[in-house]
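Subject: for your reference before the review

Hello V.,

The reviewers asked for a structural picture of the protein, and I figured it would be easier to keep everything in one thread rather than splitting it across files. Below is the amino acid sequence we used in the manuscript, unchanged from the supplementary table.
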Amino acid sequence: SNCPWQEASDGWPWKSTGPWPDLEGVRLVPEQAVDPTHRLWQPGPPQLGRYPSNPFLGVWRQLRAPFRQLFERRLGVTGLAFLLCCCIWAVAVWALFGGAITRRAALQLGREENLGLRGSLRYAAGKWRSYFAAPLLPLVGILIFSCPLLVLGLLMRFDLGVLLAGLVWPLALLTSLIMAMLLLALLFGWPLMWPTISTESTDSFDALSRSWSYVYHRPLHYLFYAAVVTVLGGLGWLFVAYFADWVAYLPAWAASWTAGSERMDDLFGSGTDLGTIGRWGAKLLRFWGGCVRLLALGFVYSYFWTASTAIYLLLRRDDDGTDLDDVYIEPGEQAYGLPPLEKDAAGVTVAPGSEMAPTEAAADAPPETPSTEQPSGEPSG
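And here is what came back from the structure prediction:
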């Protein structure tokens, strides 16, 4: 029989196959939360969801999924605690890697400068607290405004409390209006918070303020830019997904000519006719094919953060009139300005490595003005 630990892990969400059958995929964030009551060493319900269908809109929907489920009514204390852990973990992970991607994208798109992987991760690690706190601040505000409503809910367990709730319900609706505005700004503004910190090197409060300002002041611009990057991302993902599928498929196709189609079906299928060594070999084959598709999946999330950075730079220019190249440069980072000027043999100022030949310098030199002085020893007039 198979190893019980291996059987227990078959239902874990990150092992779903996604859109590529016969290969073990990797799922980063499930669209639907698994049942939080089952133990970690027990198989959970199968995850049959798909990868994001679009690098921008799909990732946006996927990353907001656990936050959206926080506001379901029939959740319970256990489910709420489970979803809070999912939200905190997702924000903690993307605070580092999303911050690194947006920092590199801001320098590349704004200043046409390339920051290495180490420099991007160093910047994101230094600003990790700001990245982490920015999307959670609106949730803290919603929690604060929910406290009076929680007390009101306790009173509504009694008939007299229901009557009292009916009298003060307009105040509850006003509180709900503020909470709805916070949620609306968070729903559309959170992709702009990471680019704000990466571009301006500010704290989480400034990232929150700027993202809300651009969402409410330039909604049509935001909608147009989001539509453009959604279309471009869909076309790019179509090419990347098919290309990765070809790369993973062609070795199996070539080997099938000598190994046989039935043998390849066993290796990439159920593998019921394989021995112990054969099953381990088939797992290795599927593992390497999954690595190829995992690299392609990286394009999806990288495109999302890069497109969010581009949208932020454009909205900042539209709303504040700030140039695209106005990106914060740390003192330790390499800034590429104008090259130092030099002078050639003729004294003409040139760029480094472009010294002129003497004949060219003489030809390009301005003509000398004839002297009006009289030669010495000759009488004047």
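For the response letter, the relevant points are probably these. The first strand starts at residue 342 and ends at 343. Strands lie at 342-343, 349-350.

Happy to draft the paragraph if you're swamped.

O.
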